Amino acid sequence: MTISKISLVAVLSATVALSACTDPATLGAQTDPKQNTKQGAIFGGLLGAGVGALANSSNPALGAVVGGAVGAGAGALIGNNLDQQAAELRQQLANDGITVTNTGDRLIVSVPNDITFDTDSYTVRPALRSDLEKVAQNLLRYPESNVQIIGHTDSDGDASYNQGLSERRAGAVADVIQAGGVTYNRISTLGQGENDPIASNLNEAGKAANRRVEIVVIPKST
Which residues form the OmpA-like domain (predicted)? Predict the structure, then answer.
């Protein structure tokens, strides 16, 4: 029993350590196109082992083995799908301003507001609709995911106005995605206003980076 408890602690500790290694801030340096598949398998295996050991109290070692095998397979599948989906999006989207980030457990498609909307407007520019329609078609090819669309602004102007504008812009992008065939029950929207900057609001370049809409693709099994 003591050995099983020690093994379980080791599994859970390794899971925490691996989570630290998948920090999105370090993912941009990866050169292995299958890195997220491998990480998904390892993380899924460790997590499955921990859950399996806890679930099978009469034989935690056996539970860890079974749970680890199931978790590794599920994690590898999610990671592989995200790798493929991200590669397809990068190939299909024509606008260099749109970025696709694979964090290992989700995709973040970031669309700058400056190329999507006119100033103080939440009407999607016609030139960007085709790219958003391509995102919708990609989402249809990968149906086992939910989509969160998040609007962001810089800190210029009134905070309450920025909050409302971010909500309306997220909704406008969601409408285009839905019109492309993605069912609305897969989509949620959120306005963050000026509350979640990714750059400094003290210069124009930082403000431009903060003005964005993010399309976050989250596999349903995560």
Answer: 104-221
